[in-house]
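Bumping with the actual sequence this time:
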Amino acid sequence: MVTLAEVAQHAGVSASTVSYVLSGKRSISATTRQRVEESIRKLGYHPNAGARALASSRSNIIALMVPLRTDMYVPVMMEIAVAVASAARAYGYDILLLTGEEGPDAVRRVTGSGLADAMILMDVELDDERLPLLRGTHQPSVLIGLPADTEGLTCVDLDFRATGALCVEHLAELGHRDIAVIGEAPAVYERHTGFAERTLDGLRTRARELDLRLLHRPCEAGYDAVAATLARVFDERPDTTGFVVQNESALEPLLALLRRWGRAVPEDVSVVAVCPEQVATQASVRLTSVALPAQEMGRRAVEHLVAKLDGRGSDEVVLLAPELTVRASSGPAPARP
């Protein structure tokens, strides 16, 4: 088993310096801290959790609130959660995973009991009822998501407003004038979930600027629900040639239904998705998409939280720029008769 003294020797510092890096009790220069943390990772040093907690008055645990709702695409949420857990371990923290829908009650329990040193919140709503409690406590926290009011908060998220605009711009450049958006389940919009609302705002704003016709329809998961939504779209807007899909569960049913109804992708209809890279590349038609940077969001959230725990962080909003990858599902709009 690697000892603290061996870490100190490897990093070229005193044992007390390593201890201060671990406990956060004293300010250590960024260069020295980075050298010590690199030695800890290389040697595989694991401090005794009980001793460290007693010495630092910390639990060395980060609480991660990730409600697993039936109307959300759970694999994405879990990919972010795994990224958070991996990044936290690199800094010597373990994760307390809260998967229920307790909302403010869970925040009160964690902040009032000392179960965790800090919190990361996911599935953030525009007017999230957990936020007043976070603002009222001294416990560090980071949101993976963006509420309407970010004052006094640290947030990490994909720039979903820019994501929506980017999808519209791509279809417009290909000559599409009638675009339909297959959105998340209705409950996601009823809760005013931040990522869904902001994407829709970006889609609508850019469509108006480019003088495009945009139709948005929420959609439940399942083949029958997608079939009903698609039929409704073509009934209301028969000239629709471009689809933007922000609903991972609807993608494969949508592609199957378009084939069944004799609409070839991308010759007759183009499809652009907001989804994980793996979903886009493994679909029956490789999808033009904006990827969800789950790994980077999880890593960035932990980095900002650790900086706060060490007294180095400040409140800020970090929006990751979207990147659109063109694949087989988008092409020039068909000529109008």
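The tokens above came from a reply further down the thread. The two ends are 75 Å apart (CA to CA).
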